[in-house]
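Retro notes, structure queue

What went well: the backlog is down to a handful. What didn't: a couple of records were mislabeled last round, so from now on we paste the full input next to the output in the thread. Example, using Septum formation initiator from Neotamlana nanhaiensis:
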Amino acid sequence: MKSSKTKYLKPFKNWFVIILVIFAVWMLFFDANSWLIHHELNTDIDNLEKEKEYYQKEIEKDKKTLKELSSSEGLEKFAREEYYMKRDNEEIYIIEYEDSLKTD
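Corresponding output:
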């Protein structure tokens, strides 16, 4: 029994191995540039890149909408669909189907 314990502890009697283990533990967990902090920062970077991609898609969609609204036909279409505006000589009928109604 005693020989198996000394067999596993034998490398730790060397000062270089002890210093190397302490240095590795320090760099992985306690240092300002530790692996844990790098992992957390990389996760934050990934999340921010996904957010950036989402907002770039939204900007492209908004640019497309603005381009459509810059013409008088697009502006009139938007006003008719969203705000139910009409010309003086027109009547508007809004038809709603049961499956399109919001029910609580």
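Agreed that this is the format going forward. Reviewer comment attached to the example: The CA atoms of residues 42 and 48 lie 10 Å apart.
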